[in-house]
Amino acid sequence: MANQIATLPSFTSVRMDLSEGLMKPDMSPDACNMDTRSGALCTCTGFSRVLPVLTFAEEPFERMYVYATEHGNRYIAVAQDVMYYYNEPTRAWRQLYQFEHDVNGERMDFLKVRIGTDDRLLIACGSEPMLKYDVETDYVEVFGSSEKLSDKSVSYVELYFGRLFAAGDPNAPARLYWSKAPGGGRTIDDWRSDEASENVSGGFVDVGVDDDPITGLFALSNQLLIFKRDSLYRLLGDRPGNYRIISVDASFRQPLHTGCVRYADRLFFLSSGGLFFYDGQTVRKSAAFAALEPLLRNANLSGVRAAACGDTLYFAIRARYGAPYNDTVIEYDVLRDRFMLRSGFTAVDFCTVHGSLYLLTGSGKLVVFDNNTTYDGDPIQARWSTPALDFGRKDTVKTLLRLTATGEGRIGVRAVSDGGTYETRIRLSSVPLGVTEIPLRGVGRVFRLTFSSVGGEPFTLDAPVTLLFDQQKRPC
Q: What structural domains does the chain harbor?
């Protein structure tokens, strides 16, 4: 037998669930911080600091929020007992509010609303009545009142057909509240009934039973989803006179509301059972997510966070049990139905504003994902491993000779076989369309190749990549 040529045709997605011998060459059982949207293998872009100073808290961070105004963004960070805001004139973080009790980020919600003619940010934490924040004056006050029946300590808030809906009251865990219809002097901070008409009145209803508490609210274009600890309901109708609450018959593991994200009038959510989505009628499991389900077996989703930016969904989890903050981000390209992992930073919370994805890290950095080649100065350690390759025959001995590729940047190549390991580093040709030959060594029947960044320097490896090897029959 003589020299043989094999081709790696493209690079697509991480796949952890299949035996490597059954995987296509364009998939990887182990990859991180890579971008394969073009079919080439590229180091992913990073993020940059938004604010020059860190926010500091004695207690762990729980949430963050970016409020967009006509004059720029306002930034909020929440620790267990204190809420902070960034004061632009002084270029410093300041205390905005002291909570009476420690708050839990998984039972906390933010919502931009208009109350009468005033724009406000609602902050619900479940341990005390809702707050409303005036970003123009940096003033926080209680949202409702006992007179208007809106002084409840709720955790989840949502707008649906112009009304404010709320749930998560510890004194009525299965209760769903709604406000009056705004207009004609009515505002969403009034939850009382109205003698004028049932259809402009506020009110409430108990959904299911109290020992199955409401754990999240999400509005789609024509229905309000009501997550409970053990069940799921949907509210149909546009006013109290025609409200219908219907149980959704679906089998899935319940998510935290911080692990849910809307995309194209569908709700996606990550739970310990995998990635699911609600399609308007029922809950379906993403078949593609089987590729990453082995990752969830040892992961901690108690602080999961989710966001959508463009056509990509982001889910932050703790891949290492016991980690203080989320240390791994799952990227899901919805259009391509492909996944990638990111690491090298911690993720407290996400927020998407005007097509930009913001992140608060565990060290107190407020950053935005952009075209930076680092994670705010920290090198991006990217890697991609091929599945175990036998080139169609396990009964022959292969001797690796060289890779032929185009691309740019410095790249590390590692070849592992049953006969040993060989590593090399090389700078790809900077000449336009320049071809680089990367010498390899290694003798064995099965090989795995790993491409990685060197010193955090970004690289691009164009597809296809050609591998030259010698193949010989094994002696009897």
A: 3-43+383-473 (2.60.120), 47-376 (2.130.10.10)
SS3 290: helix
Q: Report how far residue 2's alpha carbon sits from residue 15's, in angstroms, rounded to the nearest whole number.
A: 33
User: 410 exposed, middle or buried (CB, 10 Å; 0-12, 13-18, 19+)?
Assistant: middle
Where is pLDDT greater, at 196 or 105? 105
The pLDDT value given to residue 328: 97
Stated length of the chain: 476
Q: How many CA atoms lie within 13 A of 268 on its CB side?
A: 22
Strand order in the sheet with 274-278: 260-263, 266-271, 274-278, 283-285
Helix, strand, or coil here: 242?
Answer: helix
pLDDT (average), residues 428-442: 90
Predicted pLDDT of residue 79: 94
Element (H, E) at 294: helix 293-296
Please report, for residues 27, 54, 269, the alpha-carbon distance to residue 89 in angstroms, rounded to integers and kept in the order given: 50, 16, 39
CB 97 within 8 A of CB 140: yes
pLDDT tens string 457-468: 999 999 999 999
Confidence of residue 14 (pLDDT cuts 50, 70, 90): very high
Asked if residue 260 lies in contact with residue 271, where contact means CB atoms within 8 angstroms, the answer is no
